[in-house]
Amino acid sequence: MLRSVVILCLVLSGSNCLAGNVCEKASNEFDEAVSVYKKQGGSAFMARVLKNGPLEKDTRSLSQAQTLNQIEQFFGPIEGASILSVMELGSKSCYIIGILEYKNGPAFAVANYYSGSMGVGATSMFFQTEPEKILPKQFLVQ
C-alpha cells in the first residue's frame, strides 16, 4: 500500500513530493520551537530545535542559546516569528529561513532540518541580526 502511495505521489507531484512532506514537518517543528521559546526562553528553544536530530544533546550546539540571550539584551523579549522561506534540499532535508520578532527589532534564523531515524530535527541553525548577511538578494532588492 505504501509503495502505491509513493508511486502515485511521484506521478502526480513530481519527485519533490516526499521532500515537501519533510518541509511541512520541519516548518511545524520550527513553529513549535518558537512556542517553546516564548514560554521557556532561548535554551529551551535550542533544545526543541535540535530535538530528534543528531545534535540533540550536543552542548556546543545547545550553547547557541547564548546568542539568543545577547539578541534579547538589545531587542527585548521575543514576541513572535514567521517563516520567510522554505527550500527542499533532497528528499530528507529542508532549509528554512525564519524571522524572530522581538519587542525592539528582528533577528533572522537559518536552519537545516533533516528527516532521520528519530524523526525530523535540525542539523544546524544560526542567527543574524543583519538581513543582508542572511537573506537572499531577491528578498532585499526588487
Name the descriptors.
single chain, 142 residues, alpha+beta, Nuclear Transport Factor 2, Chain: A, 45% helix, globular
- Name the structural class: alpha+beta
SS summary, helix count: 6
User: How many E strands?
Assistant: 4
Question: Considering DSSP H and I runs of 4 or more, what fraction of the residues is helical?
Answer: 40-55%
> Which sequence of strands runs across the widest sheet?
1-2-3-4
CATH uppermost class? Alpha Beta
What profile does the largest beta sheet have? 4 strands, antiparallel
Instruction: Write the CATH fold name.
Output: Nuclear Transport Factor 2, Chain: A
Characterize the overall form: globular
What Rg do the Cα atoms give? 16 Å
Assign the CATH architecture.
Roll
Mean pLDDT: 83
The total tally of domains equals 1
Spans of 5+ residues with little confidence (pLDDT < 50)? 1-19
Strand content: 25-35%
Distance between the termini: 47 Å
The ordered string of helix (H) and strand (E) elements is HHHHHEEEEH
Overview of this protein structure:
By secondary structure, this protein is α+β, with helices and mostly antiparallel strands. The protein has a single domain (15-140), classed as Nuclear Transport Factor 2, Chain: A. The chain has helices spanning 2-13, 17-40, 42-50, 59-62, 65-75, 137-140; strands spanning 78-88, 93-102, 105-116, 119-128. A hairpin with a 2-residue loop joins β2 (93-102) and β3. α2 (17-40) packs antiparallel against α3 and α3 crosses α5. The longest helix is centred in the first third of the chain and has 24 residues, at 17-40. It starts with a helix and ends with a helix.
